[in-house]
Amino acid sequence: MIDNRIKDIVIVGGGTAGWMTAAALAKILGPQVSIRLIESEEIGTVGVGEATVPHLKLFNKILEIDEIDFVKQTQGTFKLGIEFVDWGRIGDRYIHGFGTVGHDYGMLPFHQYWLKAFKTGVAEDIGAYSLNTAAAPLGKFMASASDVPPTSPLANIAYAYHFDAGLYARFLRNYAEARGVRRTEGKVTQTVLRDTDGFIDAIVLDSGERISGDLFVDCSGFRGLLIEQALNAGYDDWTHWLPCDRAIAVPCENVGPPTPFTRSTARSAGWQWRIPLQHRTGNGYVYSSQFISDDEAASTLLANLDGPALAEPRTLRFKTGMRKKFWDRNCIAIGLASGFMEPLESTSIYMIQSGIARLVNLFPDRRFDPAIIDRYNAQAAFECERIRDFLVLHYCATERNDSPFWDYCRTMSIPAPLAETIRLWRSSGRFYRNAEEMFILTSWVQVMLGQRIVPATHHPMVDQLPAPELEGLMRSVKGVIDACVESMPMHQMFIDRFCKAPA
Ligand code: FAD
Predict the structure, then answer these.
(1) 205 and 330 housed in the same domain
(2) What is the strand order of the sheet 215-218 is part of?
(3) Which atom of ligand 1 approaches the CA of 352 most closely?
(4) 282 in ligand 1 pocket by Cβ < 6 Å?
(5) 255-289 residue pLDDT tens
(6) Average pLDDT in the 407-412 region?
(7) Cα–Cα 20 to 30 A to 37, which of 115, 120, 166, 347?
């Protein structure tokens, strides 16, 4: 009997994608499979990517990573959501909080009741009904409590992390090497394809070493060394929908306690991120080079830091889009090699995680059944397209007319599925979501409302609830949220008590 099992996996790249993949595969596949990772210190990593979404908790759980240890070693902080400043109009401010908003009532989601209550003046802003959005601006944070009733919002708090990207890669490297992953320092100079079927046979390093494998994972970053340069997978360019194509990044000193949220402030030709860590704050201006020069973008960024800059600003260039094939022959691209969307909703590290999960789920043997590959590619493309639409929503749903960039975004054509989603929402706050999508209903609701897309009316069944009961529902939910927030400690206190990083 022929043994078709995959025995040798070669990962090219040692950034967040390479080390997350190596760590997860080592843990899940065990010692029967040999995993080698090749990286070049001279080329280095992209060095950014420090804000995450709550899904990372599941990754840590599967890998049995201890949260406290992980946060300490990566100078991490906690994140309840993202604050958007000046997006719909200059002066606007809203938080896209993770987790629930209110609670479903009967057959309907909470926001349907809220729409009517808000219109009739018996409800506050939607953020008042979410633990995350109420706690974040007050600087409060705690992990989920085990000593409260399971129905309490404190029993299951949706949160993510901010961390130092370099320290995270190091943390995962230690984890992976302890589980048998072999790292080789070197530059890949050649990819050798098999004559018979064009599959990758081996890669060759600048030292002359030839490394062969059954399965190759391309984590080489934007260049897509294997998937694009060797296999010509092709790329769908989405710059017309997401026009930002550069970023300038610079860390600065902390000037106060870290906020338990990422901030995204819209600027004249893009937006600025602010990611607070224990030892510094990460900042960057993501912008469109069509609408602003690098120098102007750099001075805008430097003029809007909390504290003194800790390094020279670094410029990064990118093209938003996705590979036409994420998996081609015996090569799978994960991370920036598979495509890129700006970090507006911190989706890239999540997409690395979901790529790994998809690979494990559809793990091949050496026959590389095309049915498996097609399924992987279809799922990955669907996920990317829905994330793309969610990001485009932030740009197109704006009333800003103060710069050519915002004029472009406000009037550009948008992807058809997004146009349909907005149309349905606008009519009566209805929303259709496929179970494989990343963003949940409450994310769409918060961003739609935050970007000033208010439905014309609510679901007709809401009118069955008498007015005093509607008001009572709003009051009771807010009462519970307020009491929970009141009992939460400050984020800084939580860090000091449980996971203070070494100086
Ligand atoms: P890289 O970090 O570029 O690593 C590539 C690796 O390949 C390196 O080790 C390099 O040495 C190696 N390599 C390349 N060529 C060769 C060769 N020839 N031989 C040997 N080795 C080679 N994501 C988030 O989730 N949240 C964020 O807040 C966020 N912010 C971002 C901000 C910006 C401006 C950008 C550009 C990205 C951001 N991302 C964010 C995305 C995130 O940074 C990446 O998804 C993540 O770092 C993974 O990168 P990577 O490992 O794919 O690539």
Answers:
(1) yes
(2) 182-185, 34-39, 8-12, 215-218, 331-333, 327-328
(3) 45
(4) no
(5) 999 999 999 999 999 999 999 999 999 999 999 99
(6) 98
(7) 347
| Pocket test residue of 168, 348, 349 for ligand 1, highest count of atoms within 8 A of CB | 348
Q: For residue 124, is it within any domain?
A: no
Residues involved in catalysis:
79
Residue 434 pLDDT grade (very low, low, confident, very high; cuts 50, 70, 90): confident
Best of 43, 262, 289, 320 for a ligand 1 pocket test (most atoms within 8 Å of beta carbon): 43
- Residue at 79 is within a domain: no
- State which of 331, 366, 401 marks the end of a domain: 366
Pocket residue to mutate for ligand 1, from 16, 173, 203, 354, most atoms within 8 A of Cβ:
16
Residue with tokens 């099992």: 5
Average pLDDT for residues 248-260, to the nearest whole number? Answer: 97
Evaluate: CB of 224 within 6 angstroms of ligand 1: no
Do 308 and 253 share a structural domain? yes
The three-class DSSP label of residue 28 is helix
Q: Please tell me whether residues 313 and 208 are part of one structural domain.
A: no
- pTM score, whole prediction: 0.98
For residue 204, give its domain range: 8-50+164-235+323-366
Q: Is 172 a pocket residue for ligand 1 (Cβ < 6 Å)?
A: no
Q: Which of 317, 334, 351 is the last residue of a domain?
A: 317
Q: Is 48 close to ligand 1, i.e. is its CB under 6 Å away?
A: yes
* CB-count burial class (<10 Å; 0-12, 13-18, 19+) for 176: buried
Question: Does 385 fall in a domain?
Answer: no
Q: Are residues 215 and 256 in the same domain?
A: no
- Whose C-alpha lies nearest to ligand 1, atom 14? 220
Q: Are residues 169 and 204 in the same domain?
A: yes
On the question of pLDDT at 23 being above 90, the answer is yes
**348 occurs within a structural domain:** yes
Q: Is the CB of 14 under 6 A from ligand 1?
A: yes
Q: Are residues 44 and 176 in the same domain?
A: yes
What number of H helices and E strands is found in the chain?
14, 21
Q: What is the CATH number of the domain that holds 342?
A: 3.50.50.60
The residue contributing the CA closest to ligand 1 atom 27 is 49
Total structural domains in the chain?
A: 2
* pLDDT above 90 (res 1): no
Question: Rounded CA gap, 216 and 206, in Å?
Answer: 18
Here the CATH number for the domain that contains residue 301 is: 3.30.70
8 A C-beta contact, residue 253 and residue 308: yes
